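New to this. Comment on this protein:
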Amino acid sequence: MENATDAVVEVRDLGVRFGSQWVLEHIDLDLKRGEILSLVGASGSGKTTLMRQIIGLSRPSQGSVHVLGHSVHDDDHEVARMLRARWGVLFQHSALFSALTVFENIAFPLRELEKRRGGLSETDIHALVILKLEMVGLKGDIAWLMPAELSGGMAKRVALARALVLDADILLLDEPTSGLDPDSASEFDQLLGELHATLNLSALVVTHDINTLAALSDRVAVVDSGRLLTVGSLQDVVDIDNPFIERFFHGSRGAAALQQRGL
């Protein structure tokens, strides 16, 4: 049974240890239904490790993660398959399969899921892939290109189309604008905002891009040295007296982004 609260992701007392080193400790965090929650922290602070825990790529040393009321570390394979169909992931650097066309990259989740349900027709798969390409602002004729033929911005959009192809409720994005020039990053932020509003997605965004964070976030969670420092509105977070927050939000780049948004 799905959780009746407004949290679609619930992380409780999560800890991850590699050998004797704790990478994450006592993390309690919720992703609320329909919100964009940005997760920020210094390099090596544990942001990506936390996202990997949320999508069940590894098991925590302690604590739990529930998505839509189900444990992501449940050994029930049917539960695991159901959850994978309810979230979409955009990995850092896009993570497209280099030997597959754009079409086959986007169709891959459809084929993997639907072959267990009896399968979709090729006509249906083709229509869905083209629809998702158009949804992320790309023309259908790029479906037959290889990933190596795409610009960085196009590759990000193809990866986003793949993340959306199963009509997931939850979107998880790891550094979505990494490697993009400022104009392309701004366009991608705008696209994410439009899709969030149209599809009412719940989204967790791991980012170090202050412009992405300021443009999209309903709330911001700050991880510092493996612990959750704070969670709140952007205004609440930037007002906290902390060395990382001072460097990240009040340096020249951060201050310019905040000033642009009246903060």
Notes: The chain is about 40% helix and 25% strand. The first helix runs from residue 47 to 54. Residues 36 and 218 are 5 Å apart (CA to CA). The mean pLDDT is 89.
